[in-house]
Amino acid sequence: MNWFMNWLLPKGTSTVAAEVDALLQFIIVVSIILFIIVVGGTALFVVLYRKKKQEQVDFTKDLSHNTKLEIIWTVIPLILVTIVFFWGFKSYMKIRLAPGDAIEIKVTAQKWFWQFDYPDGVSNTNELVVPAGVPVKLVMSSQDVIHSFFVPNFRVKMDVLPNRYTVAWFEATENGVYDLFCAEYCGTGHSKMLGKVRVVSEPEYAAWLEENSSFGEGMSLAELGAKLYKSKACVTCHSVDGSPLVGPTFKGVFGHTVKLNDGSSVKADENYLRESILKPQAKVVEGFQPVMPTYQSILKPREVDALIEYIKSLGE
């Protein structure tokens, strides 16, 4: 069955993946066997006991019940369900209870990106960088609606809820880059709420933390803004080539008059851009929905300035 599991699921690269796969394989094998017995038996009886031409039909006498048969079809499913329950509960508790030495990373989900905050003060968007062979504990919450953190290769999936914390953990076994999905429909940009989990060696992880603790140093504001445009997921909803996406394009917006949904107009100056980043619902552009989240707790003051400078550099 290994070939089937490899075809059905991506390669398991966490310490819990093999256990999850074993339970799924057991359920699949039992389901196939029961399917063959029920459907195969039905087909066999149809063939053996079909009415033939000119054959006299003799009806069997009425049967109220068959004790032996009823015990069999009650006890066997009960045994199978009990096995699946205790096996699944054991795996669930293993996934839920993180080791005491795990690295704790705060995960914040909102429309439509993932924010990762590390103990050393490093912050990253849509890319979770972790060391291989080290347990990682994720403390997760949502800023808006229900999301779901799902990494198929790790067999880790956990709902991320507003106004409360949920916890999941994993220990990656192989270096590589793995897909991260939101597995709960969360609005028009749900399909674009994609991320990556990058698993590196411990020395590479330490170097990455050191490098990102000084992110933006030595760059001009516009250069930093160009990097933030991608790293903070602005690219998900705002283009820089003039085409509208979920939100209006950044190209040529600065210095122009913008029409709003309430029928008023406003000049797109620095104050307007700043307010749109920190309080996006205050002035919604005509033709677009008020779905942009606030970046108030995500961007530092210099990063807000950098994004404004980058937008200005795209032309008036």
Short recap of the structure:
The protein has 316 residues and is of the alpha+beta class.
List key phrases describing it:
EC 7.1.1.9, 316 residues, Immunoglobulin-like, five-stranded mixed beta sheet, metal-binding, transmembrane helix, 12 strands, Cytochrome Bc1 Complex, Chain D, domain 2, single chain, copper ion binding, 36% helix, electron transport
Give the topology string: H per helix, E per strand: HHHEEEEEEEEEEHHEEHH
Count of beta strands: 12
Give the overall pLDDT as a whole number.
86
CATH homologous superfamily descriptor of the domain at 103-213: Cupredoxins -  blue copper proteins
Extract low-pLDDT stretches. Answer: none
Bin the strand percentage. 15-25%
Q: Might you state the CATH topology name of the domain at 103-213?
A: Immunoglobulin-like
Rough outline: elongated
Describe this structure as you would to a colleague.
The protein is of the alpha+beta class. Among the domains are: 103-213, Immunoglobulin-like; 221-313, Cytochrome Bc1 Complex, Chain D, domain 2. The chain is 36% helix and 20% strand. It contains 7 helices and 12 strands. The chain has helices spanning 2-8, 17-48, 67-96, 202-213, 221-231, 270-278, 301-313; strands at 103-110, 113-117, 123-125, 127-131, 136-142, 147-151, 156-160, 166-170, 176-182, 194-200, 257-259, 265-267. The strands form 3 sheets. A 5-stranded mixed beta sheet has the order 3-2-1-5-8, with no helix packed on it. The protein has a 5-stranded mixed beta sheet with strand order 4-10-9-6-7. The protein is elongated and about 95 Å long. Belongs to the cytochrome c oxidase subunit 2 family.
